[in-house]
Specification:
The chain is an alpha+beta fold. It has one domain (15-219). It is 16% helix and 31% strand. The chain contains three helices and twelve strands; from the N terminus they run αββββββαββββαββ. It has helices spanning 15-28, 114-127, 185-196, and strands spanning 50-51, 61-63, 67-70, 76-81, 88-95, 98-106, 131-137, 140-150, 156-168, 171-178, 199-200, 245-247. The protein has an eight-stranded antiparallel beta sheet with strand order 7-8-9-10-6-5-4-12, sandwiched between helices. The protein starts with 14 loop residues before the first helix and ends with a strand.
């Protein structure tokens, strides 16, 4: 049973226009106008990720709806689309061959859900033939996983992945780091900095726990552009399906 429901799609006929809008947001900082939800404002925490009601670090950020992501030099932004609902389901930032996938979910007001989700992910990885260690990290507990993968020669191998989680006020942010940054601390610094500077815009509407918060393409109106479906693997926490690409 999938812990988070995601089915990605590839391609975007409007790529050129969207890339131009993304570049403008990063350069001009127009995406960092988060508004606080009534009744949810809190004192500024020691560090991010940030809530929309926090006094977040003043940085230019890309406005992706529920997520506002800082732009970093040389990054590539990819948006993932759910095949069933045609809704944007995740954002992925790639830098120097490593990738950070980001998703935000609704959570109860009274308690966080990362402890529970982390245990479920760990069980799922083991059931798929991999392994996952629960370790301390820069944002609290995280999972260092070794996910099963098939080589071109047909042999079974393992690829590393780091699962990050952060419980905010009525929301939960999940990040998955793959590539060299999953195992090399120096390579992870940029993506860790991106994760720590994300602003989550939860909104005030009632949502059930684990409900995926709505993401949008930068400055795009209406539903995402249709694109051919990509084949998704059985184990979905690391599934990626490019929808738009932007390189700085």
């Amino acid at each position: 049973m999938a812990i988070f429901r995601r089915r990605p799609k590839d391609g975007d006929e409007a790529q050129a226009a969207v890339e131009e809008q993304v570049e403008q947001q990063v350069d001009q900082g127009t995406g960092d106008d988060a508004q606080a939800a009534p009744g949810d404002a809190q004192e500024r925490p020691a560090r991010g990720p940030w809530d929309a009601g926090d006094d977040a670090t003043p940085l230019p950020r890309l406005d992706l709806g529920a997520l506002r992501i800082p732009g970093v030099p040389g990054m590539e932004l990819r948006m993932e689309v759910d095949k069933t609902t045609n809704a944007v389901s995740a954002a992925a930032v790639s830098v120097d061959g490593s990738t950070l996938q980001l998703q935000a979910y609704a959570a109860p007001r009274s308690e966080g859900i990362w402890d529970e989700i982390r245990h479920e992910i760990q069980q799922s990885v083991v059931q798929q033939g991999g392994a996952a260690d629960d370790l301390p990290g820069p944002f609290g507990r995280e999972l260092l996983a070794r996910l099963p993968a098939r080589t071109p020669e047909g042999r079974t191998a393992h690829r590393p992945a780091r699962f990050l989680g952060f419980d905010g006020p009525r929301w939960f942010l999940r990040g998955v780091i793959t590539g060299r940054a999953a195992v090399e601390p120096d390579a992870a610094q940029v993506l860790e900095r991106v994760f720590g500077e994300v602003v989550v815009v939860r909104g005030t509407e009632a949502r059930p726990p684990r409900d995926l918060l709505t993401l949008t393409l930068p400055n795009r109106q209406g539903p995402p552009v249709e694109a051919p479906a990509a084949q998704a693997p059985d184990f979905d926490p690391l599934t990626r399906g490019p929808e738009i690409t932007e390189t700085r």
